[in-house]
Protein 1
Amino acid sequence: MSHPGAVVIVGDSIAGVTAARELRALGHDGRITLVGADRHGAYSRPPLSKSVLKDDSADSTLSYRLDGLDVEEVRSSATNADLDQKRIATADGHLVDYDALIIATGADARRLAEPGQRGEFVLRTLDDALALRTRLDTADSAIVVGAGFLGMEVASACVARNIAVTVVDVDRPLERILGPYLSTLVTDRAERSGIRFIRTPGHVSLSGNPVRGIALPDGTELSADLVVSCIGETPNTAWLQGTGLADHLGIGIDDTCATAFPDVYAAGDVAYLRKAANRSAFWSNAVAQGRVAAASALGHTPTSAPSDDYFWTEILGTSIKVLGSLPLRGAPSHIDGDPAAGSALLIWNRVSESPTLVAYGIRKPVTRLRTMAASLTL
Ligand SMILES: Cc1cc2nc3c(=O)[nH]c(=O)nc-3n(C[C@H](O)[C@H](O)[C@H](O)COP(=O)(O)OP(=O)(O)OC[C@H]3O[C@@H](n4cnc5c(N)ncnc54)[C@H](O)[C@@H]3O)c2cc1C
């Protein structure tokens, strides 16, 4: 399609906001409508676990600015997409016509609670973070289910707040993605900080209503003042039911962020690259796809890739920045610094792929890491 008059973006987090910015940067002077369900508007999620849980002054720093973009905002949930009529319906009764549609509805937290079971905490939205922070104010103990990035960040917040925390997972912390070397490094440090880890032989269930703990499959019961489930996310595609746009992985896209339907593009956590057949639910990826989707929606050939393999996390005050493909296996082939002392640059050489760089506890800007990675691959 060339020069669409009206572009509708559904979802106003980083992928949707990036798409709106890119549309204007590429010269689109037609209508842009941004449909967003969250009552707080557009905001950044990474600080929710890193600062909001510990510090209420962080709340006011999260919003994405839309100044100067001349965007019409519809603050309601999209409930239906009519792909023939090219029209979006929202819960508050708006009908918004589009020439090009960008879907950026992201994902929501997976939950463990049975229907009707109250009191499970998750962390995906600002409201989730505010509810969890309030509960942490009076808690002495917490259980975190899931030892991935989010689980480890929530456990770190508990430590910072002097709350005894137990992290439960079937795998070793972070091992699925960061491999055994970094898993050991992080786990040793976390245990020294007082985090208790339990390997469960299978999936756990929540016990009590309201929730007061968890049950392991071998019958072991653990109790705590609160339980936070950090067990991944599911793409927000329920509103697209019946359109054929989404499957169990989310919305399949090609390298131009095009879906299988004309003039419909998708970006961010809701989408997955069909050639890779898995979602890469990271911030930089959502930015990369927001840009590509905007260019494609305008009929341009995208000049950047629909993926970005930069990821960062922060655990117990130590930043871990990863540039390159994951998962990592085995030990690094090069170590510069002292990982045990909490500061090192680590490199994993990979067969027939670019190396993966990890800045562990080094506040190196991502631009520097990218330059280093480029020099290593020459
Ligand atoms: C606590 C936390 C910490 C994180 N930390 C990191 C990190 O350190 N590093 C990193 O790389 N990544 C991190 N991530 C992941 C990163 O935030 C996500 O990859 C990113 O937010 C994805 O952006 P998105 O725009 O695709 O989707 P989302 O951020 O999920 O936003 C989707 C938006 O769409 C809206 N929406 C959903 N359904 C509808 C509908 N039907 N109608 C209208 N609007 C709708 C939602 O309200 C939401 O605002 C973190 C995520 C969380 C939750």
Protein 2
Amino acid sequence: MHVLIVGSGISGLRLADLLSDTDVTFNIIEARDRIGGRVLTETPSNENYFDLGPTWFWPEKEPKIVDLIEELQLSTIEQYNNGQSLLELSDNNPVKFIKATEVNSYCKRIEGGVNALVQAIYQRIPTINIDLNTRATAIKRNEDQTFTVTAVNNRTEGERTYDADAVVFTLPPRLLFENIDFTPELPETVKVDLLNKPTWMGAQAKAVVTYNQPFWRKDELSGNVISWQGPLREIYDVTTPNGDSALFGFFGLAPADRKRETLASIEDKVVNQLVRLFGEEARDYKAFYYKDWSQDDYTVTPGDTLNIESFPTYGQPPAYIDNVYFAGTEYDAKNGGHLEGALASAEQTFNNLTHQSMTKER
Ligand SMILES: Cc1cc2nc3c(=O)[nH]c(=O)nc-3n(C[C@H](O)[C@H](O)[C@H](O)COP(=O)(O)OP(=O)(O)OC[C@H]3O[C@@H](n4cnc5c(N)ncnc54)[C@H](O)[C@@H]3O)c2cc1C
């Protein structure tokens, strides 16, 4: 059995990793010029790594990522939540002190950033065949029940096709609905289901500001902040143990408002907020990193630029046809949204695929 995996985020790579211990052969096509998908780590040096995509895992609730990190012998860092946190309501209210744990629960980061996990999975796969810069545009079921996927090379705009016995799409559901033509057509129930699953964090952006010292800690501040004044809504300490100190933030400033700003004006607004909260020392920063996911064509559709108001219902869509699978964090009912959900959905797809392959052999 030969499988085509579309997308090389955590779910696509983990599926490839699992398949590499079986007789099932596979190849991957990936629209970006890199692997990892929503995992994006800035690594100015070995000691300095700052995640602009996912940062944390929650060991008490997320056994799959805990086991994988252990298996791959990666080191972890406990999230710094000591001291007091800040709550900034409106212009007229003074900043309040609150318990650090009111802002963040117990969680951990991965040494090297989440990209260390991506690279460790990738390196464990003995023969991996990935075509980067290759975006899938269509899938057709052939008369012999195999599939042909059409893809376009982003650099040359040249088209090519891939044949497979089974195809696994790992694109976020709305992106899948918008960008892939299905023959036979997707049933209405599947289309509605995909549209009802917003891309997790699709409306978000992240900024990281680095410093020589975690100066906020000497004032017994955790670095954690909740702010209704913005532009950052939530702020956390992401100091690297042997490198630079850092604060990162998620934005309260809406995607449409961010789009009207320049990178320089966003940087200016973020640094001014940190000065307002932590004093003049915050102006003496080393580097500023920024990623706006609401403008990332391989993660979101225009409908994702609205903030998610309540937790979406994630999970598998209704059945389409045999041997076309949907994997990825938004397809996992229990931990959808998180890295744990991406891993769980890769494992579930692996079980379905290998069951199918054994049935075919019999
Ligand atoms: C700002 C932010 C913060 C987050 N924080 C956390 C956190 O702290 N902890 C946590 O657990 N999770 C967090 N998440 C969520 C986490 O990033 C995701 O759950 C996980 O990375 C999803 O992996 P995936 O493989 O399902 O999807 P993706 O990583 O989105 O992978 C899909 C892949 O498909 C590719 N693709 C898209 N279209 C095509 C096409 N047409 N053809 C071929 N390839 C295509 C994409 O380029 C991508 O590589 C965060 C996400 C964001 C954006």
